[in-house]
TrEMBL record:
Domain Ig-like: start-end pairs: 17-74
Superkingdom of this protein's organism: Eukaryota
Family annotation (InterPro entries): Ig-like_dom, Ig-like_dom_sf, Ig-like_fold, Ig_I-set
Protein species of origin: Eschrichtius robustus
Protein name in the entry: Ig-like domain-containing protein
Length: 74
């Protein structure tokens, strides 16, 4: 895939992040462990925040948030 910035010589170009893996609907019973995963492609560093009922989720005993960073240059 060619970067939209590849034709711009010597300039810095930032493109809006794109979700390359979207969330999937999951059915479960109360108390069961569930894993939600998303993947984001971006030309700059991005932060992903998770929310439940309009409240930001923090890493805790009830919620485990894992981040995997892979840098890909265009």
């Amino acid at each position: 895939m060619q970067s939209p910035c590849s034709s711009l010589s010597g300039s810095t170009c930032v493109v809006a992040p794109v979700f390359t893996k979207h969330l999937q609907d999951i059915s479960t019973t109360r108390g069961q462990c569930v894993v939600f995963e998303c993947r984001v492609q971006a030309t700059a560093t991005v932060q992903v925040h998770w929310y439940r009922e309009k409240e930001q989720i923090a890493d805790s005993d009830d919620f485990r948030i894992l981040r995997k960073s892979t840098v890909i240059s265009f």
